[in-house]
Design goal:
The complex is a heterodimer of chains A (about 210) and B (about 210). Chain A has about 210 residues and is of the alpha/beta class. Chain A is about 35% helix and about 25% strand. By secondary structure, chain B is of the alpha/beta class. In chain B, the strands form two sheets. In chain B, strands 1, 2, 3, 4, 5, 8 and 9 form a seven-stranded mixed β-sheet that branches. A two-stranded antiparallel sheet of chain B has the order 6-7. The chains are: A alpha/beta (about 210), B alpha/beta (about 210).
Chain lengths: ~210, ~210
């Protein structure tokens, strides 16, 4: 009788433990391999602060004024903190990135990279907004495409690169009324998938290094 | 209720088909007299995966057909505007060099090393200007509809056309005129939207 009661208690306890284990696993920030990470950077601990440059707007139609710098800071900074880099330090002067084009990142020139940002800084994180479109149908949809580059000014190189694509939408009249929210959701989703590939500071044991 | 739905659909109808190409600039450029003769380099077409930017095989997306249609439409629209487009000569080594180095010619300021190549090419072809075009297509996931949650999503694929009119003798190395046009879906060379996009690209060049 005693054994039967003990067994009856053990089963719910084991199920609860299993549920908790699953919950914690699901809540742990997921780390994905970045599209590119420099091997030297991956092994060296970063002690200096990382500055966040304003978002480089690469859209064709720039008529809609987007204020994405706050979204970038809110979505990226917590991950950098969790992974041991400390909070990102935002730079708000748009003039810092006004002349930059995509080619400066895809075919980087060490001289241009070293001249970016404040003089006394070493690490810069630069987000690039490739595309943000929203559309009203019978509902509304939005797509966002953002890439991020971590620059080592001292060496004049890009040490990390990744890309985030966000797709969001809601059908019906409710969806039509929520256009702004849907747009924001797509942007945030893109920033979060970008942040997921930020490696642990000084050790990249969990991440497969892509050359 | 029916009237409301009708009005709602009526309101959203133009937007339902709001896939019209969008131009980035409103600046026009007028080529006058003899200088209306322009050497047109063939379009540089690139297909990329939206998640990784890795190049995709153009053959999977009718790449060759798209490039041919783009060039023929470009010639047609430029001729309509009173410009004399001159096709690139595949046997000319200087022109081949320019075609291979399209990336450098699409920068806001052309590197000095390429300016002399441009000048020599313009002199040998007896033209005042050189027109460089690129078409970059990002291929991403398509649209979706989840009947359980009501969530919908639009296709994330798109194409961007870029054209730059270069004056090889410009002292600052900047293009005389540039235009960007975005096509909000995968380009189909036989579609009306594609033709509209190419027309929009050259509309302000006359």
């Amino acid at each position: 009788m005693k054994n039967a009661m003990l067994l009856a208690c053990r089963i719910p306890a084991a199920l609860a433990a299993l549920y908790l284990a699953f919950t914690f696993t699901a809540c742990t920030p997921r780390m994905v391999p970045p599209l590119f990470v420099d091997e030297t950077f991956a092994k060296t601990p970063v002690t200096e602060p990382i500055y966040l440059l304003p978002v480089v707007d690469l859209r064709v139609d720039k008529s809609k004024d987007l204020k994405l710098n706050d979204n970038a800071l809110k979505r990226l900074s917590p991950t950098f903190e969790k992974r041991g880099y400390g909070a990102l330090r935002p730079l708000t002067d748009r003039a810092l990135v006004e002349s930059l084009i995509e080619d400066d990142f895809t075919h980087p020139d060490p001289e241009i990279l070293s001249s970016l940002g404040p003089e006394n800084s070493r690490w810069l994180f630069c987000p690039l907004l490739h595309d943000l479109k929203s559309k009203i149908t019978f509902g509304s949809t939005a797509n966002a495409e953002i890439s991020g580059y971590l620059i080592d000014k001292e060496r004049g190189t890009i040490v990390w690169r990744h890309k985030g694509v966000g797709q969001a939408g809601q059908g019906g009249v409710l969806g039509m009324a929520m256009k702004g929210v849907i747009e924001e959701e797509a942007v945030n989703s893109a920033f979060l998938s970008l942040a997921a590939a930020v490696p642990q500071n000084g050790g990249i044991a969990n991440v497969e290094v892509k050359k | 209720m029916k009237y409301w739905l009708f009005l709602l659909l009526l309101f959203s109808w133009p937007r339902l088909h709001g896939q019209a190409p969008v131009a980035g600039s409103t600046r026009s450029f007028h080529l006058a007299g003899d200088s209306a003769s322009v050497l047109v380099l063939p379009v540089s077409l690139r297909y990329e995966d939206i998640y990784t930017d890795t190049p995709l095989d153009p053959a999977q997306h009718k790449g060759a057909e798209t490039a041919i249609t783009f060039d023929s439409l470009a010639f047609a629209f430029l001729s309509q505007s009173g410009i004399h487009p001159l096709p690139a000569d595949p046997a000319d080594s200087l022109q081949q060099k320019l075609i291979a180095s399209g990336r450098h010619l699409l920068r806001p300021v052309i590197p000095t090393t390429w300016r002399s190549v441009l000048a020599h090419t313009a002199q040998s072809a007896s033209v005042r200007y050189i027109l460089v075009c690129s078409f970059r297509v990002k291929v991403g996931p398509g649209g979706y509809w989840d009947p359980n949650t009501g969530a919908i999503g639009a296709s994330s694929s798109y194409g961007r056309m870029h054209a730059a009119l270069l004056d090889p003798f410009a002292p600052d190395g900047k293009p005389c005129w540039t235009q960007d046009v975005e096509l909000r879906k995968l380009p189909r060379p036989d579609s009306k939207r594609f033709s509209e996009a190419v027309q929009l690209l050259f509309q302000l060049l006359n």
